[in-house]
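User: Sequence for 3-demethylubiquinone-9 3-methyltransferase below. Tokens please.
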Amino acid sequence: MQIQPYLFYNGRCREAVEFYRRALGAEVTALMRFKDSPEPLPPDKVPPGSEDKIMHASFRIGDTEVMASDGCGEASDFRGFSLSLSAANETEAEKMFAALADGGQVQMPLAKTFFSPRFGMVADRFGVPWMIVVVA
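Assistant: Structure tokens for 3-demethylubiquinone-9 3-methyltransferase:
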């Protein structure tokens, strides 16, 4: 059994996927726009003008598959969870933290803790909360 995050970006999915490609080396494994659906979509569920928006995307960060979409008008209020990203060493942690913090908001600066040589928390430019930790 696996649990995979499915994130809704309220119209900014393509931008988010590109950001994670640059910031974390994410590899896009699937991308489908609403207009590419093999079946007609219910007009009451898909906002007008959404044809070029992302209906479904999948990308891999390390060994984890993350799924994403522009959604169908839902708010993108990422609260009540964090994505935890394990780094092999302090240099890697600092690089990932800085990349995610670009345009985002640092919630806890990357620093030494009793459980890790580097741990920090940041919400990226889309509001997705991340915890970066060096696993020793």
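The two ends are 26 Å apart (CA to CA).
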